[in-house]
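Late entry, evening session. Most of the bench is empty. Finally got around to the prediction I had been postponing all week. Sequence below, unchanged from the version circulated by S.P.
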Amino acid sequence: MKRKVIQIANSTQLISLPREWAKKYNIKKGDELEIEAKGNKLEICCEKDIELENISINISGLDRTSIMYYIRSAYRRGYNVIEINFDRDYAHHFRMGKDVKIISVIHEEVNRLVGVEIIQQKDKFCVVKDISNASFKDFDTVLRRIFLLLLDATTNLFAAMKSGNKVLVENIEQNHDSITRFISYALRLINKGGYSEQHKNSLLYTIIVIIDKIVDILKYAGRDFITNDIKLSNESKEILDNIAAAFQIYYELFYKFEAKKIYELYLNRNNTIDKIRKIQNKQPKNELILLSDLRQCFEYITGIVENRLSLLF
């Protein structure tokens, strides 16, 4: 877009702000904006978050998991008030094979979301509202927390699997919920404000979403390990160590970029794939399925290496 320059007195020149941008960020008279000169360009940014006020969602006919994802998605998008409507009292829980109270599902999900509470509840209706003063300044701390929780969860899960301790393997459920809580918060912070460089927001958003997928893989692996009463061979234990090492390498790559870390990551990946191939005709079927599922973590991690590289530019 183009803007005409307005001359005020002899030394002051003005240009108007795009109306849609000013409305989006709620810019008012007297507000201060950051302006940075970059060659023949001026970059204008504000510290205000995007204000998405209300949204109404109808969860009628959905199962328990779909309800949780629906509420979580509205939260991640950045809405301040979420009105939830439904036409029945129960929703089906596929994994448990039974119906559960919808209002209990809503409470369960809201308890996993940072900074919001249920402020109104009636028959087949409730309102979730942001009661916090969340700021994008928290983002870097939240992101690092996600990485550290992922490393801890992976280390603890694999140690429990290698020792055959099913009680400790079950802890991945709580670890999953804790990490998901911070993931949702980080995505919400990006959507409500984010960095002034939009490409940076997109790259980080993708990285966090992929971590969300990885945490799900770990959770399902823990469940399968317990359900199928899997006993790991020494070869399989080494493969788990390699997968845990991949998470550590990516964490180091993300926070202190060194090109050699990319080589280490791909070398580790290829060595692990070779190990899986060598034992695929020797180990029990359930054990191989578990390793195959966990192998997906490599593909996700190597997939977001490109995102980390793009953050350099």
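Two things to note before I forget:
Residues 52-130 form a domain with the Ribosomal Protein S8; Chain: A, domain 1 fold (CATH 3.30.1370).
The longest helix spans residues 198-227.
Will write this up properly tomorrow.
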